[in-house]
Amino acid sequence: MATINPWQKFQRLLPKSSYYRATVTNVIGDGLVEVQTQDSQYKVSSNISVTVNALVLVKDDVIVQILPELPYARVEV
After folding, report:
1. Measured between alpha carbons, how far is 35 from 11 in angstroms, rounded to an integer?
2. How would you classify residue 31: left for phi > 0, otherwise alpha for psi between -120 and 50, otherwise beta?
3. What is the pLDDT of residues 27-49, one digit of tens each?
4. What is the distance between the alpha carbons of residues 46 and 65, in angstroms, rounded to a whole number?
């Protein structure tokens, strides 16, 4: 009887792709866009039309969706 390794079972639950939120800093053209995260700046490809300062969702270095502008509040207790 084969047993299932709990670590492998846990790893199967995790997403294979990386998602992150970024702000568009520069539209280079030909589907290439510069985006800024909290940590660093990347060049990613875009299949959709984006403008500077737009919040976007990036998956595997491709802009997937434009995110809405939502209010943000940080509360420390």
Report:
1. 29
2. left
3. 998 889 999 988 888 888 888 88
4. 9
- The rounded Cα 52 to chain-centroid distance in angstroms is 16
- The structure tokens listed for 56 are 């976007």
Domains and CATH numbers, the chain: 17-66 (2.30.30.140)
Question: How many residues are listed for the chain in this entry?
Answer: 77
- The DSSP code for 68 is P
Tokens, residue 59: 């998956």
Tell me what the mean pLDDT of segment 53-74 comes to. 90
Taking residue 17's Cβ as centre, other Cβ atoms within 10 Å add up to: 8
Q: What is the DSSP string of 1-67?
A: -PPPPHHHHHHHHS-SS-EEEEEEEEEEETTEEEEE-SS-EEEEEESS---TT-EEEEETTEEEEEP
Tokens of 42: 């990347």
